[in-house]
């Protein structure tokens, strides 16, 4: 998705200037997202300064959110994360992608299932809400069963506040390195079609039994089917919708309208 972008932290003065400009144009803003990549890689003191500047310029501010990697959450003490929560950082977006180590290794995730689960628990311990993403089809045909089973195990052991699915689409120009990276481990990647991705979604929804409710969504534009509900409460309704789409095509998003 970001294959053609190089991540680097911007000088704080530039960030403050952006905040000042935004506050002049949208003084009523009550929600802010810290773009792009992984703002949590910044030192905690820098994040404090950014959050304090947001609060000073936007009097109606109630929520700040950010992307995060498991590693950068795990590097910060719970007390440091709680300090960010006190400054209105309330939601982080964290990619699970898969709960299976072989799949994570092949996509160069840079995290293990244990590290991902640890990060989710750590964020929750600090009072942060966590929105996690899982990618349907990421294991291909070879790892499909293991991909979903291991992802279910991870989510059941470390349930996020929100869980969303994306659907892998190898037509996208942003993924030119996917195949070589996968195949250097000795097997050819065989992508799933829509029906197979719907089957993965059904297996995911069926097996999820989190100890507390999870808000589940598949409304990202990459998905063949858009769903929303609360697990486990809405499990049967979600499965019925998936089954209808699987057998009749009802509700499927046209490929021309899908994107990342």
Q: Note the run of SSEs as H and E.
A: HEHEHHEHHEHEHHEEH
Shape: globular
Secondary structure category = alpha/beta
Helix content: 40-55%
Portion of residues in beta strands equals 15-25%
CATH level-3 fold name of the largest domain = TIM Barrel
Q: Structurally, how many domains make up the residues?
A: 2
CATH superfamily of the largest domain: Aldolase class I
- The total beta strand count reads 7
- Uncertain segments: none
Tally of helical runs: 10
CATH class of the largest domain: Alpha Beta
**What's the average pLDDT?**
93
Strand line-up across the major sheet: 1-2-3-4-5-6-7
Largest sheet: 7 strands, mixed
Terminal CA distance reads 8 Å
Task: State the main characteristics.
260 residues; 2 domains; alpha/beta; TIM Barrel; globular
What would you note in describing this structure?
The protein is α/β, with parallel strands linked by helices and 260 residues long. The chain folds into two domains: 10-68, no CATH class; 72-248, Aldolase class I (TIM Barrel, Alpha-Beta Barrel), CATH 3.20.20.70. Helix content is 43%, strand content 16%. The chain is built from ten helices and seven strands. The chain has helices spanning 12-25, 44-57, 70-74, 78-86, 101-106, 113-125, 140-157, 178-183, 194-207, 235-248, and strands spanning 31-34, 63-68, 89-97, 129-136, 162-167, 214-217, 228-231. The protein has a seven-stranded mixed β-sheet. The N and C termini lie close together (8 Å). The mean pLDDT is 93. Pfam families: Radical_SAM. InterPro entries: BchE-like (IPR051198), Elp3/MiaA/NifB-like_rSAM (IPR006638), rSAM (IPR007197), rSAM_horseshoe (IPR023404), rSAM_sf (IPR058240).
